[in-house]
Amino acid sequence: MRKGDLMNGFVCGTCGQYHDRLPMCFGPNAPALWLSMPESERVTRGELTSDQCVIDGEHFFILGRILLPVVDGPGPFVWLSWVSLSKRNFARTCELWDIEGRETEPPYFGWLQSALPYEPSTLSLGVSVHTMVLGQRPTIVLDIIDHPLSLEQCHGITMARVQEIAEICLHGKSGVL
Asked: Its domain of life (predicted)?
């Protein structure tokens, strides 16, 4: 199989079926704390949009992108992930949300709050959140530690690894989709 062939589809090692394309982006639609709350409490305890979440007026989250270089194909692979920010940094992010030139803002410290399919857990890994130009979600850079996700961000992944991630996410084993 040629490098580009996976982008056009693949035979899934989990279900044995042919999937017509290999997704290059996955991620949960809410932070782990939101997902752990009973649905009946969500409306009274917080607010969730496609890019931001506030819970109990004290937990502040934004959605960003963890970019993993793909060493043998088109890339990058993207994990959409939620990050908790301090109240001050969340307020600053909101203040700059629609401002041209916001990408010059220094990075914010945060904690990863998406349970991505890795062992050990990705919850509460330290990160830097880099504001991007208007129209782009922030880029999340993990602290350099001995964790598989951090190592993949530093060293890249293969298209075979992208397929492995897709199989995990497409078949609901991860809770990411």
From this structure: Bacteria
| Mean pLDDT of the region 83-111 | 97
Which H or E run includes 27? none
Whether 68 is in a domain gets the answer yes
Tell me the residue length of the chain.
177
pLDDT tens for residues 98-128?
Answer: 999 999 999 999 999 999 999 999 999 999 9
pLDDT for residue 177 is more than 60: no
Q: Domain of 63?
A: 26-156
CA–CA separation, 171 vs 78, rounded Å?
A: 18
For the chain, the domain total comes to 1
Between vectors from CA 92 to CA 132 and to CA 90, what angle results, nearest 5°?
90
Tell whether 164 is covered by a domain.
Answer: no
Beta 25-26 vs 46-48: how paired, if at all?
A: unpaired
99 conformational bin, left if phi > 0, alpha if psi -120 to 50, beta if neither: beta
pTM confidence score: 0.90
